[in-house]
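Order emerges. One example.
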Amino acid sequence: MTEKLHRKLFFIIIFLIPLNLGKHFIFRFSYVNGLLSDYLIPTLFVTDLLIVLLLLLWIIDLLINLKPIKLKSNYLSFLFLTLYLASVFLSISNSGRPEPGFYAYLRLILYVLFFIYVINNFDFKRDFKLFLTVVCASVIFQTILSILQWINQGSIFNNYLFFGEQPYTFSTQGIVRENLLGVSKVPPYGTFRHPNVLAAFMSVFLVFIAFTGIKSKVDRRLVAVAFVGGLSVLSISFSRFAIISFAFSVAGYFVISKLKKFGAVLCLLFVLLIILAGISLPAIPFNQFLIEDPSFSIRSDLIKATYKTMGENILFGAGLNNNLVQIKDLLLKNEFLRFIQPVHNIFLLVISETGMFALAFFVLFLYSVLYKLFSVSKYSDPIWKVLLLNFFQLLILGSFDHYFLTIHQTMLIFWLTLGISLKYNLNT
């Protein structure tokens, strides 16, 4: 009975990944340079409560049925993950503002526990069809809302109660605007905090839908509607990196299908080049282009500011969720940085906030997941190829944005993807 309850709750959580509904608690430490920062506001999301309930039901199930927790087969991954979490905890005591670091650490622990739950409970033969059906339903829901927002050029509801949709209009200060054939347009937000985050959600799950939908025996009409709708939303999001990561995955799927191991290695080399480009963005010799495009200019200047300050606390960092505090003085020198955002690179974010040891363990943890995927090497299995490409998408998108480590919806996608990847190794 308990097992059925937490399994059903798991699929509810998957559908509600985009949910942005939560209670915000604003404190003095939530301000940087006199401006309120979303990233420093402790927030209790409905999703967090659902995950807590999921874990409690799972623990009860384990105790009643005397089930063991499966860690042994992935012991290296868990070793590196544990060392990473320990390093992150040490950084909090070293931070200028420990409060935002502490609540961010609690969410990190919660989502890591969700990751462990996935490894222990997800079964590809039993669950994958339902999983993909729920993903399609979630994508379709966001598609409908996003297209209505695009037509309205603003939110559909004027409060946060509808799945956490934030109220906005074309004239809202700080709202994202893009140029479409000489006309200024506001890309859709869905129930996310930024069009780029909505685009990341679509980019990752569209790869799942595109290449596993038909063979998983999910209703073809549902798959077709989800794919066409999601692709439409991805297009009008104007999110360059999400679109590039999706295009890379589509091309990579056929390259791996044709060239097998050599194709997978080629994809890996391309991703490593992307990572290198991401951490060295200010040094790329396209200065005029970077200056004229705020998207690149902001990223470049945030990276410069992070490089200038990370040496002050290179061992243990400035403290989890303290990158903004670390670079706050340099933020004043760039008019585009008035939005107060962390550095748009997960690797630089980790080392700047939690230090070189945490970065080393974080990279080793990611490597251990990738190694497990490569050790299976089922080049003819669409699910294996999609999992590998989804992993690569995390690295590509993470090289030019921070949301996999800072925003609860994409954090959940990050840990879900890694959990399913490791579980695939156990199921084969």
Q: What stands out?
A: The mean pLDDT is 89. The chain has one domain: 2-427. The beta strands are 22-24, 31-32, 35-36, 43-45, 178-180, 183-185. The radius of gyration is 21 Å.
